Amino acid sequence: MAGHARQWPLASNWENQTVDAKIIDSQDAKKLSAEELFGQLDASADGLSTAAAQERLAAYGPNALAEKETSAWLKFLGYFWGPIPWMIEIAAVLSLILGDVPDFCIILFLLIFNAVLGFWEESRAANALAALKGHLALQAHAKRDGQWTEVPAAELVPGDIIRIRLGEIVPADLKLLEGDFVSIDQAALTGESLPVTMHAGAVAYSGSVVKQGDMTGLVTGTGGNTFFGRTAALVESAGAVSHFQQAVLHIGNFLIVLAGALGVLLAVVELSRGVAFLELLQFVLLLVIAAIPVAMPAVLSVTMALGAFQLSKRKAIVSRLQSIEEMAGIDILCSDKTGTLTQNKISLGEPSEVFAAKDESDLLLAAALASQSGNEDVIDKAVLAGTD
Fold it and tell me: Which of 80, 105, 280, 321 has its CA 20 to 30 A from that of 245?
């Protein structure tokens, strides 16, 4: 095999490797030769020592996308913060001041109900997303201390030598070194249904799936510094306030200004008539309470929760309730053919030409006989599935 004839730099002193390596962009890794990458990453074909790998792990962080952990209590309390919640809370306090206990209890119940419903729906979505993340690469075959061993994928670092095989998820950005070839499904990154055949010198991206072959590679980027990680970071940074949130903020601000203006106007008029201050205060409090849409957040949350429930039956995960209203306002959805939006499946269509075959059945039989069921080739699988 031509790939195994290559001689890569060996480092018998990998015990003394340091953390001087740097993370290399996947596009730069394509341009650099393997020898240049070994030099820049302070690595060798013998892999890293356990000590060096631990130092690099401490310097670069785990091979995972960074997640901002927020306390569940802070998330829950966040539902009590904002123009509309403030107005409802003011209404509850004013009702208590006026001694209207039934109204106070109703307003408080609606406030808590809205917070609990929103928190519960988003928690369900978070749990579903966490379950999906469990299907990502968990283990990797890496060369540590000169020996092949299985290590958690999250502990891979730039400079590691790893092996990828049939059916495995590529755990990090790799510069392929040795082996005949690998056929890699990059649909999640590019949307292309057919796997890409790669040889030594090519770069395999984190998150892609090995469909055929067996090769070794040099880790050039991990975690958020991979091609996939940088893409995810761009998506996360592109977040904007939704139309629903803007509408609620506008409504809340308008009602606050309206209630304040009417309160001032009422106070001026009643004071000019000589109304007692305590009696005037009661009128103002009643006006403010009447201007606050106490049930509006609860009604909106229930409506969107029902929508999330219907979408869950179709295997759609709603991570934020506000996104339902945002999607409902879309007239035209423009998207590329990423694997997250397509099934990434090839099916056998009707043949337009049978060539030397007698008929269509004879053509399909010949195609099926030429296909293998165990090699994970997507075209062979499509042919065999179409002849069942």
Answer: 105
Regions of the chain where pLDDT drops below 70: 1-23, 66-70, 83, 121-137, 191, 232-242, 245, 278, 289-298, 315-321, 335-345, 374-377, 388
The count of C-alpha atoms lying within 13 angstroms of the C-alpha of 12, restricted to the half-sphere facing its C-beta, is 0
Cα separation of 357 and 368, whole Å? Answer: 13
The two tokens of residue 355 are 């060539």
pLDDT tens readout for residues 205-220 = 988 889 888 999 999 9
The residues that bridge with 212 in the sheet, in sequence order, are 183
**Can you name the residues that pair with 209 across neighbouring β-strands?**
169, 185
Dist CA 354 CA 266 (whole Å): 88
The Cα–Cα gap between 219 and 228 comes to 14
Is-contact 190 239, C-beta < 8 A? no
Q: Residues with catalytic annotation?
A: 336
